[in-house]
């Protein structure tokens, strides 16, 4: 063997041993980082939780009727129901060929401090404007909104329209009972 060939073989052996030592260093560093991550996760998950303070009876009842439990939200246990009226109207825009008759009983919830003013407004001072606003919502409602089991969109629109007519935020929630639609 010539001296050139021998020196080339030594360089190759030196390069491979150098690259394997780099791989060992990288592997060791990776193991240390993974070990630190495991320790941090274990420390975070093993921390004792803070015990919850017991709820009073009033807070327990309020939490059962929170916005998370109902789609319509807005209403609380302390709100009072105020009947508004029964409505029968025809919706011609919900379906292309035909008519939908809509009927329902309407009530609204309001805070006890607003009840007297709200009842006065919906039965005397703004009665016709409130009824017109409710009928407008029912007459212009899309078919999907009428078929919604919760009637969420219709309730929201009625609430907004009544509050707009009365120029005050009386209504917290809308209650629709005996809701019927008949397609013809």
UniProtKB/TrEMBL annotation:
Keywords from UniProt, A to Z, are:
Cell membrane, Chemotaxis, Flagellar rotation, Membrane, Transmembrane, Transmembrane helix
Q: Name one Pfam family in it.
A: FliL
The membrane spanning regions, by residue number, are 26-45
Q: Which domain of life does the protein's organism represent?
A: Bacteria
Gene Ontology terms, cellular component aspect? bacterial-type flagellum basal body; plasma membrane
List the subcellular locations.
Cell membrane
Membrane topology field = Single-pass membrane protein
Q: What this chain does, per the record?
A: Controls the rotational direction of flagella during chemotaxis.
The UniProt similarity line reads: Belongs to the FliL family.
Q: What is this protein called?
A: Flagellar protein FliL
